Amino acid sequence: MLNEIISRPKSLGEIASQEEVVALLRRSIVSGDLPHLLLYGPPGTGKTSTVLALAREENAYRQRILELNASDERGIGVVREKIKSFAKTLINSPPFFKLIILDEADCMTYDAQAALRRIIEAYSSTTRFCILCNYVHKIIEPLISRCAKFRFKAIDKASAVKRLQFICNEENIQCADEGLEFLIDRSFGDLRKAINYLQNIKRFIGTNGIAIESLKEMTGVLHAIYSFSVGASEQSDRWVSLCSAIWP
């Protein structure tokens, strides 16, 4: 299994292909005026990694972070219990704020989002909220208006390959650049998915001299071709049977 500490960026400087967003966040850190954040864009583009790296640079990691996946905990009860109770706690050393990260917040119900808006209003002096989502149109306007919006673009191929090369070097995985480029292509710009592929390759195939055919098998390319041929054959048989029934 890949070491999560290695595969996840430790600082904003390691975030792949999001230079404009990183520059704006750094400016907020320098000014000491970090706003509530709304990070949105396709999956696997570094939204969660970015906010965790930001927390590390602000020395707010671990004890000052509440991280929730809203697709698992999407109801109003979680907002009132976990989020509110964490937001209410006081801190006695700088930075004088906590960070609440809500991943996949576009899965939250309308009522939960409305309750979250009220909590943001009540605890903004001690807590920063970071809302992460794939589809910003599913976030209610009162939440959007209280956050600085940052759009994450799909990661370009060169940056994604560079990140996979780094992980392979740290994990002693021997995979040619051609293989890494293939993983990126199969992941359609989702770097997290490409890293998951790499994790499965290490677990089931090993780390030495990974062949491109092994990558195709692991990522389902051969299976997809086989499935298509089987499906086409079944459709063909049904079509022949139908024609025979109509024109005996």
TrEMBL record:
GO biological process entries: DNA repair; DNA-templated DNA replication
SUPFAM superfamilies associated with the record? P-loop containing nucleoside triphosphate hydrolases
Looking at the UniProt entry, the stretches that span the membrane are none
Tell me the InterPro entries matching this sequence. Answer: AAA+_ATPase (IPR003593), ATPase_AAA_core (IPR003959), DNA_Rep/Repair_Clamp_Loader (IPR050238), P-loop_NTPase (IPR027417), RFC_lid (IPR047854)
The UniProt keyword set, sorted, is: ATP-binding, DNA replication, Nucleotide-binding
Query: Which GO MF terms does the UniProt record name?
Result: ATP binding; ATP hydrolysis activity; DNA clamp loader activity
Family designation: Belongs to the activator 1 small subunits family.
Q: Please give the name of this protein.
A: AAA+ ATPase domain-containing protein
